[in-house]
Design brief:
Keywords: Disulfide bond, FAD, Flavoprotein, NAD, NADP, Nucleotide-binding, Oxidoreductase, Redox-active center, Transit peptide. Disulfide bonds join 53-58. The chain is of the alpha/beta class. It contains twelve helices and 22 strands. The strands form five sheets. Strands 1, 2, 3, 4, 5, 6 and 17 form a seven-stranded mixed β-sheet that branches. Strands 8-15-9-10-11 form a five-stranded parallel β-sheet. The longest helix has 25 residues, at 93-117. It binds flavin-adenine dinucleotide and ligand NA7.
């Protein structure tokens, strides 16, 4: 195979990674087709072109987080002299949901127009491999077979469900929450990864009772000191946490609510009634649905993801980017960057590989957590405790004083090598706008930021980001990291 193919590149999956690669390849003169197809969720939710981030991920998540923050801001506003009357302020889930979905529809539309303008052929159909050089898909016009020189697997992932009675019938996931027609009400969130915590955070912020079932530890893979501060802050804001618990069953009650039974690690059983059960127990890659074995592409035995060094699978003309990759960060900018660089290597004569190190990210919990680089645990594991210096500080955001907002979890730390100018290995920040704070420091770390350079940087006053330029207390010193006054 390989000769006389119809396309230069066929991309399976029109999400962050697939679309970025397709647009770049087309700009470089390649003939490209993109297939995108969304299988409805068990309760029937479906959406348009653009993948997870736009439809059921980053974008609706950030908008609902913002809605929750505004609720807080209303209370702060009073202390700043805003007279809000009448005093009983309500939130309409329906209005929020409609506004969020309206924005998503407009992005779906713009994406479609952009593909047309850029001459990327878009096919609304589910792609399946017939053989290593052919993808087949059912469209409204009938079956189509597409042959290509190169293929890109960018199918992403979908939420997993636990194998317990009632999960599929009565549970929902992040694929459903952002378009839920009824207010979610009292909600149990199963899973304490970043998606679970973010959903619990904005639901509580919008006024709903929220309980999180944590199987082992919160935010596994993240710095655990920071993760525990995030959880403590959420508890202060009224989110309940049930530690070392897993769900056992979900049943419908006579009045249409949900009876949930869970169990702790001592096998003790507990139960409560909820309106919504939201599973956030991780995501599985959509490789099986692609009949990937017919192409000869190997997947990891533990999670069906694709181990593809330099985005190339074991079948040399088949590539993969995004969430489908084994042990790579599941983040939109990672998928986009890798897709674009791959297109340049395939069609633009580039040799630049994707760098997956030191990718910054933010957990959008009520107090946000922004991070770039290594956790304290990882740094110690990699370099040894004696070779690491950790600077830390609690700080007081100026704008927190008047409303007397809690500052007890406003904390940051810098993990660095101990020798010489102390190369920075990781930066961690809990507070408002954590993503905005961390992004610039991520660029500084790309330029080999040191603690010496950080300390000689003049801050912007009064900001919270300037706290990074004021660090001077090491954990090793044992000095109090609380601000003087
Ligand atoms: P996707 O965007 O998932 O796109 C894959 C597309 O392929 C989908 O449209 C899928 O339906 C389609 N498809 C699958 N199989 C086939 C097939 N066989 N044929 C045709 N089409 C197919 N990342 C961030 O950077 N920041 C965040 O704040 C953030 N928040 C998130 C919040 C939530 C709730 C979730 C779920 C994710 C979040 N992410 C966030 C992660 C981000 O959405 C993903 O990393 C990103 O979308 C991955 O892009 P992708 O191209 O790999 O796959
Ligand atoms: P994560 O980060 O994989 O988190 C999943 C969470 O769900 C985590 O707290 C798990 O606990 C928990 N979990 C997993 N399976 C179960 C079952 N069966 N019962 C109860 N709890 C469970 O997924 P997210 O959806 O938050 O994020 C998706 C991806 O984005 C993630 O893979 C990251 O790479 C980035 P555990 O710690 O395993 O005990």
């Amino acid at each position: 195979g390989g000769a006389n193919t119809e396309y230069d590149l066929v991309v399976v999956g029109g999400g962050s990674g697939g679309l970025a690669a397709a647009k770049e390849a087309t700009a470089l003169g390649a003939k490209v087709a993109v297939l995108d197809y969304v299988t409805p969720t068990p309760i029937g939710t479906k959406w348009g072109l653009g993948g997870t981030c736009v439809n059921v991920g980053c974008i609706p998540k950030k908008l609902m987080h913002q809605a929750a923050l505004l609720g807080e801001a209303i209370h702060d506003a009073k202390t700043y002299g805003w007279e809000l009357e009448p005093d009983n302020i309500h939130h309409s889930w329906e209005s929020l949901k409609d506004a969020v979905q309206g924005h998503i529809k407009s992005v779906n539309w713009v994406t479609r127009v952009e593909l047309r303008d850029k001459k990327v052929e878009y096919i609304n159909g589910q792609g399946k491999f017939l053989d290593p050089y052919t993808i087949t898909t059912q469209t409204k016009q009938g079956e189509r077979r597409l042959t290509a020189k190169y293929f890109l697997i960018a199918v992403g992932g979908r939420p997993r469900y636990p194998d317990i009675p009632g999960a599929l019938e009565y549970g929902i996931t992040s694929d459903d929450i952002f378009s839920l027609s009824k207010p979610p009400g009292k909600t149990v969130i199963v899973g304490a990864g970043y998606i679970g915590l973010e959903c619990a955070g904005f639901l509580r912020g919008l006024g709903y009772e929220a309980t999180v079932l944590v199987r082992s530890i919160p935010l596994r893979g993240f710095d655990q000191q920071m993760a525990n501060l995030i959880v403590a802050e959420m508890e202060d804001k009224g989110v309940k946490f049930e530690h070392r618990c897993i769900p056992k069953s979900v049943q419908k009650t006579d009045d249409g609510r949900l009876h949930v039974v869970w169990q702790n690690d001592k096998k003790e059983e507990f139960s409560d009634i909820f309106d919504t059960v939201l599973f956030a127990i991780g995501r599985r890659a959509l490789t099986k649905e692609l009949d990937i074995e017919k192409a000869g592409v190997e997947v990891a035995p533990d999670n069906e993801k694709i181990d593809a060094p330099n985005e190339q699978t074991n079948v040399p003309h088949i590539f993969a980017v995004g969430d489908v990759l084994y042990k790579k960060p599941e983040l939109t900018p990672v998928a986009i960057h890798a897709g674009r660089l791959l297109a340049r290597r395939l069609f633009g004569g580039s040799t630049t590989p994707m760098d997956y190190e030191n990718v910054a990210t933010t957990v959008f919990t009520p107090l946000e957590y922004g991070v770039v680089g290594l956790s304290e645990e990882k740094a110690i594991e990699r370099y040894g405790e004696d070779n690491i210096e950790v600077y830390h500080a609690y700080y007081k955001p100026t704008e927190f004083f008047i409303p007397q907002k809690s500052i007890v979890h406003c904390y940051l730390k810098v993990v660095a090598l101990r020798e010489g100018d102390q190369k920075v290995l990781g930066m961690h920040f809990i507070g408002p706008q954590a993503g905005e704070v961390i992004q610039g420091f991520a660029a500084a770390m790309k330029c080999n930021l040191t603690v010496t350079a950080l300390m000689s940087t003049v801050g912007i006053h009064p900001t919270i980001a300037e706290e990074f330029t004021r660090i001077n207390i090491t954990k090793r010193s044992g000095k109090d990291p609380n601000p003087a006054s």
